[in-house]
Design goal:
450 residues, elongated, four-stranded antiparallel β-sheet, alpha+beta
Amino acid sequence: MTLRDLFHLVLSNLKRMKARVAMTAIGVIIGTAAVVVLMSLGAGLQRLATESLYGMGGLDELMVRNDSYWGGMVEVKSGGGQQQPQQNVVLDDAVLDQIRQMEGVVAATPFLDVTMMGPLRLDRRDGWGQIYGVTMEDFAKIAKLERGTLELYRGQVLIGALVPENFIPWEEREQSETPPTPPELLGKTLQMIQFQYSEGDMAPTESVVARLEVVGQLKRQGYMYDYSIFMPLKEAQRLNQRMNAAMPPEAQSPARKGYAQALVKVQNPNQAPVIEQQLKDMGFSVYSDRQQLESINQFFLIIQAVLGGIGAIALLVAAFGIANTMVMAIYERTREIGLMKAIGATNQDVMSVFLSEAGSIGFLGGVGGVLLALGVNAVINVVGQSFISQGNGGLMGPGMGQETAQALTATPLWLPIFAILFATLIGVVSGIYPAIRAAALSPIHALKYE
C-alpha cells in the first residue's frame, strides 16, 4: 500500500464517522489547549519577573558585605580554593582599590549607613529615607540620574525616585480616593531631626542635626536606590560622628573597622559570576539580583512542569477516547478488514490504517487545541492587563506601576509545535491496541461477521 493510497483511505474513513471523530477530537483539543495555556501562563509570569530585574539593571551589580564587621571571624580561601585559618577581614579603602583593579569591575563604592535618630523634615512634613555615604566618583558610574546633578558639595544629597512618596502623611493616603501627589523635593532643603530623651521628660527634645539640600533625583532602579538618599562619603562620616558622639572616633574610623558593605558594578552581567567568586574567596559575602534571577528561573521551571503535567492529564484522558473510537471502528468495519486481507492487504497494512487514523485524530485535536489556546491566551492578557491597570491606579502610590502593562502569557514557538506533535503521538499510542486487534482478525471470520 502506497502512502497516497493510505492517505485517501484514512481520509475517507474519517469522513464516514465525522460526528464520532469530532467528539473524540474535542477531548484532545481541550487537553492540548490546557497544556499550552498553563505552560504559556507559567512562561509569561517568568518573563515578567525576569524583565523587571533586567529593567532595574541590577544584574551587573554586586553587594559585598563584610560579615566580620560586627565581630567574629571568617574563613578565607587561598587561590587554590583551600580554606585557610579563620581571620579578620576588613573591607577598607585599600581593599576597595584592589577590587577596582579586578578585570571587569567598573566601580566600587562603600555604602556607609548614616545613623538616624529621628525623621527627615520638609517644612511641616516628616518623612524618611535611608541615608548612605558613597564615593561620588564611583557612584556616578552606577546611578541613573533623572533630574538635577550628580555633583555634590557639602550639605547636598541625591534622592531615590520614591523618596518623595515617604513625605505623604498616612492620613492623606487614607482619606484621598486618588493617589495623592508627593511633594517636590528637588531644590528643597531637608532637616535631619534628632530626638533626645532625658530622664523625667514627658516628651523628647528635638534638634536639627543637619540640613540637606536635594540637588538630584535618580530614576527607578530598585528598592535599594528608590527609597534611599545619597551623600558624599566624608560628609556621612562626619554625620555619624555627630550622631554617635559617645563612641570614640577610632571605633568609627573606616581605617580600623572598614565598611560593613560596598557596591560593586561590573562591565557585563556575564562577568558577574567570576567576580562574585573572587570576592567570596577574599572572605566577603556577596548578594546580587542575579542570584534572585536564578532562583526565579528554577522556581518557574517547577511551576511550568506542574502546570504542564496538569494539562497532560487532560490529554491522557482524551487518549482513552481515541482508543475507544478506534475499537468501535473495528466492530463496524470487520467485514471491510476481512475484504482488505482477502485481496492481499498484510497485517502491517491494516495496522498502518488504524494507526494513521488515530494519529490523524490526535493531529486534528492538537491543531484545534493550539488555536483554542491562542484565543484563551489573548483573553487572559486583555483581562489581566485591565486588572493590573486598575490595581496600579488604585492601590499603588504615585509613580509606581506606571509602565505599560505587559502580557501575562508568553507562547514560545516551540510550545505549539511540541503540543501538536505530542497530541499526534498520544493519538498514535492510543491506536496501538486497536491496530493490533484489527490486524489479528482472521480474514475468513471477518468476512462472515454480521
